[in-house]
Amino acid sequence: MAVRLASHMNMMMSSTSSTSVVSQSRKRLAFGVDILPPFSITKSTLASPNKLLVSSTLRFQYTMETENLTKSLGSPCPHPRKQSVDEIFKSMESWATDNILPMLKPAKECWQPQDFLPDPCSDGFHDQLRQLQARSKEVPDDCLVVLVGNMITEEALPSYHARLNATDIFHDHTGVDTTPWAVWTRGWSAEENRHGDLLNKYLYLSGRLDMKQVETTIQYLIAAGVDIGTSNNPYLLTIYTSFQERATAISHRNTAKLAMQCGDMKLAQICGIIASDEKRHESAYSKIAEKLFEMDPNGMLVAFAYMMRRKIGMPAHLMYDGKDENLFKHFSEVASRIGVYTAGEYRGVLEHLVGRWNVEKLGGLSSEGREAQDYICKLPNKIAKLEEMRARTPKIKTAPTTVSFSWIFDK
Ligand SMILES: [Fe+2]
Ligand SMILES: [Fe+2]
């Protein structure tokens, strides 16, 4: 049975009584989605990294429309003067030690994947496994697809660690640097490592996945890398990570709600506990960014505007399973349709950060800073208007699109 893109909502409605998540996702469905980067990366792109092929999908049309709201980027983000950035971060070191590092949890106080999994050393292992498999049978295919996509995203952690490490300031020259920034990078990675580990083991034990296809996708993704547009600029990195950690928390939290609706409370607990880690990480990154806004408001505004013009791309956008050239697009469409992550959520994260960093009230700015401030403050409304316009646009009725995923045996 194929995963039917157009019929999913009906399936969700019939498999659950009445839920706010379902009604919200129905509403959001009309908006279309834009969590994709402006280019779709295809198999041939991976073979020839210099060649970017543009996808001719509705999603791309939407992206082109949003592009009209923005200026052409043309040039890279004006990099703040390295010397002044070094000085700013140096002056923040004792503050970061006192305020950011305590936001990492000591390993002995952290949850570990085994806390949520059947214990293979216990007599009850086989019973626990049977119960796990019975519960996961109730999870609809498209919810499973989103769980797998989320898990694969988490499993590409080596790429994200490499991005942090490639950034001025957060880098770790010796591998055991003692700056609070390097300590944070290693501690953050160590916490994140549990996310993919837990989801991978749980989904493996569910017995519902073609694990070789899942593992192949992870290998392709790590080999392909990640293009988040932050280069070595720590301002861009703090903005990207603040946005992305919040977006990831939303995605896991919404998946937890769906798992709860299906009656898999353990899976809901797993997604929920991962979401709470992501929220804590978001708090840390947005706190660093808040401090940078205090110290260099112009530099941070320009960096924020740059990232929003470029758009915050999801970290796993280069995913490929050896079969589907548009795998990330298809995964994202399912995630949007079932209300896990939508265009409305993207705008919501932006609005949150604008408020969190008091962007509207920043004063004493340079002309560049004011221009960036103006762009950022107007952007949420522009995105909302675009969503409304799309919702009002009559849709051509077409037959339901069927997309299959190798992760679930081409269903
Ligand atoms: Fe994570
Ligand atoms: Fe995260």
From TrEMBL:
Keyword check for Disulfide bond: no
Annotated metabolic or biological route of this protein: Lipid metabolism; fatty acid metabolism
CC terms in the record's Gene Ontology section: chloroplast stroma
Amino-acid positions noted as binding Fe cation 2 in the UniProt annotation, renumbered to this chain: 192, 245, 278, 281
Origin superkingdom: Eukaryota
The record's free-text note on cofactor binding: Binds 2 iron ions per subunit.
Keyword annotations: Chloroplast, Fatty acid biosynthesis, Fatty acid metabolism, Iron, Lipid biosynthesis, Lipid metabolism, Metal-binding, Oxidoreductase, Plastid, Transit peptide
UniProt cross-references to Gene3D superfamilies, sorted A to Z: Ribonucleotide Reductase, subunit A
Subcellular localization: Plastid, Chloroplast
Cofactors: Fe(2+); Fe cation
Pfam families to which the protein is assigned, alphabetical: FA_desaturase_2
Binding site residues for Fe cation 1: 154, 192, 195, 278
GO biological process: fatty acid biosynthetic process
InterPro entries assigned to the protein according to its UniProt record, in alphabetical order: Fatty_acid_desaturase-2 (IPR005067), Ferritin-like_SF (IPR009078), RNR-like (IPR012348)
Molecular-function GO term, any one: metal ion binding
PANTHER family: ACYL- ACYL-CARRIER-PROTEIN DESATURASE-RELATED (PTHR31155), STEAROYL-[ACYL-CARRIER-PROTEIN] 9-DESATURASE 5, CHLOROPLASTIC (PTHR31155:SF27)
Protein family (similarity comment): Belongs to the fatty acid desaturase type 2 family.
Record's protein name: Acyl-[acyl-carrier-protein] desaturase
UniProt source species: Rhamnella rubrinervis
